[in-house]
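Page 47, continued from p. 46.
Same chain as before, 170 aa.
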Amino acid sequence: MKKLFALCFTVILIAACNQGPVRYTQNSPEIDTVKKLIANYNGKNYDASMYADTSQTVYNSSKVMSPAETMDYHKGNDANYSSRGFTGEDPEYEMVLTDKGQTWVNCWLTWEATLAANGKEVKVPIHLTYRFAEGKIVREYGYWDPTEIVMTLQQLAAEAAMAEEEPVEE
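Result:
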């Protein structure tokens, strides 16, 4: 009986010590890559070297962008802002290993900007998620509510169009 008890205890002990891969963490090389990507964005350093050549990025739509198109997207939007970037206000990062063996990094950040046309300041919570393979980003998804920015830019465009239509007094 003692031998049976010792055998069962040994099996339980071995099973308890034999843990699988880490499925969730807040510290990983992939998270460090995302943090570097965020720092590059804030510094207007448009470096796509962290992306795989075949990587696909989707922001708030179904339009898929390549790494080069993603960098062009950011450069094009920069014209709308006198300043912009992610703040250091309570960023959250997590890495998850899915049941399918995929590595994903999720982050929740606060982005703020000052519109160049009128000096209006905006703050937007943003969720970004990245899928990694062999140390490179192969998918990126970004989700945020652009309503305030879009409405302001549309209002400014309408005001500019109206100003052009007004007759010039001589």
